[in-house]
Amino acid sequence: MSRKKDDTAVIEPKANAHMDPYSSMLSRFYVAAERVGLSPDEREILSRPSEIHIAYLPVAMDDGSVRVFESYRVIHSRALGPGKGGIRYAPEVNMREVMALAAWMTWKCAVVNIPYGGAKGGITCEPKKMSVGELERLTRAYTRAMSEVFGPDKDIPAPDMGTSAREMAWIVDEYSRLHRGNYIPAVVTGKPLELGGSKGRVEATGRGVTTVILQALQRMGRRPDGLTAAVQGFGNVGSITAKFLSQNGIRVVAISDKTGGVYNESGILIHQAIQYRDNHGGTLEGFKGGERITNEQLLTLDVDILVPAALEDQITARNASQIKAWLIAEGANGPTTAEADPILNERGITVIPDILANAGGVIVSYYEWVQNRRGHYYTESEVQERADNTIKQAFDDVFTRAAAHKVSLREAAYLLAVERVVRALRMHGKY
Ligand code: NAD
Q1: So which residues are the catalytic ones?
Q2: Are residue 212 and residue 341 in the same domain, yes or no?
Q3: Which range marks the domain in which residue 84 is found?
Q4: pLDDT for 383-413, tens place per residue?
Q5: Per residue in 204-219, pLDDT tens?
Q6: Which of 104, 116, 187, 370 has minimal Cβ neighbours within 10 Å of its Cβ?
C-alpha cells in the first residue's frame, strides 16, 4: 500500500461526529454488519479500503509552467472480483471521498450481482478550466502512475464526474502502449464505441434510474402519468434521467447544475435544455426555460419525485424535514447523509438508494467488459435487455428483502450486499 505518512487519521474507520461521505457509508455498513452477523475481523476488513494508491502527477501546462496534481486510486474490496469504479475529476476530490465512493462500488456491484469488487479514482483538478491537451497529458500521467494497479482482471476504471469516453480512450491507449502495444480494451469501460465501447453505455445510468423509479411506482400502485419530478445535476446522469422521465409521462418541473436551477410548473423541455447546455460550455447558466431557483430550493420543491444526481451530502439532517417529494431516487452517489435517513424514514418517504438506483452504469460497464473479452459485440437492444433484466432483478431482491424484514430499501440493499460480499470473503479463506 502506498500511503502518505500522516494519513492514518484519514483512514480511521470510526464514524466521525462530522458526517462526511465515508462516515455515512460506514454507519450504514455497521448496521448491516450487525444484522448479517459479521465477525469482528470481517467487520474490520470491510470497514477499511484494501489498497490506497496516491500519485503526484507533474503535468506540462499550455503556458509552459508545470503543475503537480494529486491523484488517487482506492480499491475497497476484491472479494467478488476485480476492482471496478469510475474516475472523478473535480476540485473537491479528496481521499476520504474517494474511499467512500470505492466502498459504495463494492456494495453496488454486490447488490446487482455482477462479479466485481469496488474501487474508485480521482484527481483534484478543475477540468472545465483546463485545455484538452492538458487534460490528455494529465490522464496519461495518471494511467502511467496506476499502470500496475489497473488491469482487466485487477481493477477496471470508468467515467465519473468530470470524465467521459474521451478520457477512457486516452487511458486505454496509454495502458496498451505500456503493455507492449497489446490492445487491451477491457482495462477500462465507458470507452467510445470505436475503441470497443458498448452500445447503450452513455445512457445506461439515467435509464437505470428511470427503470427503478417506474418499478417503485408500480409496486406502490401509482401510474407515472401526471406525476412531477425535480432533478438536481444536469450532467450524464441528471440530464438523461430527466429525458427518460419525461418520455414516460412524468413532468420534470425543475432541473439544476452547479450554476443554479430552473423551475417551470408546466414542465421543462428537456431536449431544449440539453441542447442549450451542449452549446453553452456544458452548463445551464442563462437557460430561459423557466424561473431561476437555487439548488437548495430545488430539493424542497413540492414535487412527487426527487432525483439528486449531482454530488454527495445534499439531503442532510438540516433539510430532510422540508423535503416534500414522497419518492427519492438517488442518481448521485451518497446524496443523502446517514443522519438524514431516519428523518426521511419517519416521514414515510421512500428512498431508492444510490447503490441500487444508479447501478445501471456499472451494469452496462460489465457487459462492455464481457464484450471486449469475447470479441463479440451486442446490439443496443441486446445490451438494454440484459441491463434492464439485471437492474429489475436487483430491485425485486431489494424490495422483497425490505418487505420481509420491515426495513427501508437502503437497509435492505446493504443487507443483501454485505451478505454477498462476506460470503465470498469467507470462501477466500484465512490470511
Ligand atoms: P457529470 O460530470 O456528467 O455531471 C455532474 C453534474 O452535477 C453537472 O451538471 C454539474 O454542473 C452538477 N453539479 C456539480 N456541482 C453541483 C452543485 N454544487 N450543485 C448542483 N449541481 C452540481 O457527472 P455524472 O456522471 O452525471 O455524475 C453525477 C453523479 O452520479 C455523481 O455522484 C456520480 O458519482 C454519480 N454516478 C455517475 C454514473 C455515470 O455513469 N456517469 C454512474 C453512477 C453514479
Answers
A1: 120
A2: yes
A3: 2-6+50-188
A4: 999 999 999 999 999 999 999 999 999 999 9
A5: 999 999 999 999 999 9
A6: 370
Q: How far apart are CA 169 and CA 187, in angstroms?
A: 11
DSSP conformation letters of 72-134: EEEEEE-TTSSEEEEEEEETT--HHHHHHHHHHHHHHHHHTT-S--EEEEEEES-GGGS-HHH
Report the alpha-carbon angle 17-94-203, nearest 5: 110
- Work out whether strand 155-159 and strand 228-232 pair parallel, antiparallel, or are unpaired: unpaired
Q: What is the DSSP string of 197-211?
A: PPTTHHHHHHHHHHH
Taking the centre of ligand 1 as the mean of its atom positions, its distance from the CA of residue 257, in whole angstroms, is 9
pTM for the predicted model, two decimal places: 0.94
Phi, psi (rounded to 5 degrees) for 115: -80, 60
Name the residue with the closest Cα to ligand 1, atom 40: 361
How far is ligand 1, taken at its centre, from the CA of residue 182, in Å?
33
Question: Does residue 398 lie within any of the structural domains?
Answer: no
Ligand 1: lining residues by beta carbon, under 6 Å: 159-162, 205, 232-238, 256-258, 295, 309-311, 331-333, 358, 361
The answer on 263 and 208 residing in a single domain is: yes
